[in-house]
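Quick check before the chapter quiz. The format below is the same one you will see on the exam, so make sure you can read both the input and the output lines.
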Amino acid sequence: MHSSLGPYALAIVVIGLLVAAIAWARRRHAQRDAMDAPLSPSAKKTLAEEVAYYQRLSPEEKVRFEREVKRFLFDQLITGPRGREVSEELKVLVAASAVMLVFGRKGYVYARTRDIVIYDEAFDHDYVEGTDKNVLGMVHGAGPILFSARALRQGFANTRDGLNVGLHEFAHVLDFHAGDADGVPSLVPWRSVAPWMAQIQRETDRIEAHRSVLRDYGATNEAELFAVATEAFFERPKALADKHPKLYAMLVEAYGQDPAKSP
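Here is the expected output.
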């Protein structure tokens, strides 16, 4: 059976395409303006004073890091619960967490598929806040990314304890990019998937035998092992490289950077 759009239906389609094209052009123009504008002095102050990773970069790398932070902040919606405004400092710490993980992968852009919500304190699985709650961060497969502001700040204040909720949750985001959260991030080359999965099992066994520098929480499942290993990779790289050389080498390949060689 042959069918065709009538003149009114065709007009509606054309108008819809024009509206979409105009919206796309406006967003591209706004993005160019945002990327060309310098990072605000207060945002640069947050990076310079609170993000040790940024402090160790060369002047040229700092410029690129700032640009990637600007891109992330333009692309992502970061608010408190129910759309409440949050400080620029917290937004920058979230962006820095995300950028650190992919800084060795030039051109990597996080998908604009989810909102980011920052609670003041820890929370529970019903999203009730309180100092007696125990959830510091959470990533839903297709939903928002959640953080505790207190935990986010603490993660950047102590850079040697292998605990940074920003890095942990964005490791989960990279894991979800490859499909289900199975401990294999989208950055891992296809040829390395099988060796990666085998290594995850070995590292889980080492945690359970109390022979690992990784936190015990990493033995929860494959996804948590990868997230905990990511925290150690950026916060305790020399210990990880010394005690877990195969895991460390795989993370170097995935992230395209070698923090154990940094000053």
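If your answer matched, good. The longest helix spans residues 7-36.
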